[in-house]
Amino acid sequence: MSTAPSAVVFANHDVGVRCLSVLLGAGFVIPLVVAHDEEPHEVAAFASVVESAISHGVEVALPDDVNADAFVRRIASIAPDFIFSFYFRQLMRSPLLRLARRGALNMHGSLLPRYRGRAPVNWAVIRGESRTGATLHYMNEAPDAGDIVDQAVVPILPDDTAFEVFRKVTVAAELVLWRSLDALVDGRAPRIPQPEAQASYFGRRRPEDGRIDWQTDAKTIHDLVRGVAPPYPGAFTIARGRRLGVLRTAREPQRRERSRTPALYVENGSCFVDCGGGGVLRIVESDLDGMPVAAAAIDHALGITGSLPLGR
Are 251 and 189 within one domain? Predict the structure, then answer.
């Protein structure tokens, strides 16, 4: 790169930290990093963009609304070559996007056009996908719908949690950005339109969406458990009026259900659940009302004799 390009970076999470490092390592001038307040579960689990920016001597802004007139004027005064968004949660509008003289780009944690929207890694795991990835694309006002520059695939193994997959996606994002920078700066980066017929969109997940429907099959439940496993809020069920967190499970394909009615029971030091849609799950890690409880002790903790019927 003959002349150092400038970029305003909107970033969050590990993807934000690693991609910011890529830009700095490639010689970009970063006059401003824009971040937002982290949710409680994020503080311990994910790297801090704010801390990373400060450690590199980069100014940080934490605006409530990036599309507010005053903040748009602030970015206009910087006149950046690029705007980059790395896992930033606020949707940017056209007046802001147009300020990037050489392009406004986003790194999304899926293989676009599939899994547009929020929590793409979690949704991919919950829906039983065998792969996902990272996609670098130009931004417009439609969420995650702009032309693609590049993307990379990562595998989702049958027992991977969403957090483990997110770690893979972070590496994929770093690689995709690194190998795209020269073409972006030189103005020869591809712009591949997304095939709308293949697009899918998913919204934000809430903690209550982790409630297990035991009438479904073992694989569907297992995918939900690993898709929302800690540091995300976790899957749960209500048992005898108490919140039983089901944090990690294992499928037991060789084990036959005692009945097709969903029920939990402890046998030979392990806790099992017969699933209404077929199959048996073993609960590997759990908590009760937020306190860790050994799976083999769930029956004692809940006062179960024999088995406990489970519902929604």
Answer: no
